[in-house]
Amino acid sequence: MNTRQDGHRDAWSLLLLKAQRAHQQAQQQLALAQSREAQLVASQQRVQGMLGEYRRRQFESLDGGQLMADTRNDRQFMAQLQKLLEQSMRATAQARRQREAQAQAVLVARAEVDKAEKLQAHAQARERVWRDRVEQKAQDDLATLRFQWRSA
Predict the structure, then answer these.
(1) pLDDT digits over 60-75, tens only?
(2) Nearest-CA neighbor of 72 among 58, 84, 91, 85?
(3) Hey, which of 26, 62, 73, 80 has its CA 20 to 30 A from 10?
(4) Is the pTM of this model over 0.90?
């Protein structure tokens, strides 16, 4: 078989392999981004829960006559929790954007795999046509030689 044709087939296989690896890596990065986002959402929910609990306790303490120092400490702690919640919300939003970007990267990588598969299939089809033509020509040449030998 023609080495030029073999080289093309190998090039298409390598292109497909490279696209598949990029797709797999993008999927792994997406999984990491999803995991990170889930962790941040869980953390945000915990902080929201703590803040809600302290707000509830502060509201209840207004009726119970809590000491002024305790009230001030609770307010400071709630201010810290609120700040932490805002940071957590920003981090969660950033993680969501990263996950969405990574999901888009997976789609792009999948499209590249599909394109490489189509290119490889077209190259294989062209190679089969070329091979069939070569075989047909060889058969035609052989038949012509046989006919000429019989006629001679």
Answers:
(1) 776 655 566 667 787 8
(2) 58
(3) 26
(4) no
Least Cα distance to 61 among 52, 70, 48 occurs for 70
Distance CA 1, CA 138 (A): 13
Q: Does the CA dihedral 15-18-22-28 come out positive or negative?
A: positive
Domains defined for the chain, CATH in brackets:
3-146 (1.10.287.1700)
Mean pLDDT in residue range 85-93: 96
Question: Could you tell me the pLDDT band of residue 1, with boundaries at 50, 70 and 90?
Answer: very low
Element (H, E) at 2: none
- List the structure tokens of 46: 């915990």
Residues 23, 26, 31, 34, CA torsion sign:
negative
Q: What is the pLDDT of residues 105-146, one digit of tens each?
A: 999 999 999 999 999 999 999 999 999 999 999 998 888 888
* Torsion of the alpha carbons at 88, 89, 93 and 95, rounded to the nearest 10: 20
Nearby residues of 60 by Cβ (< 8 Å), 6 or more positions away: none
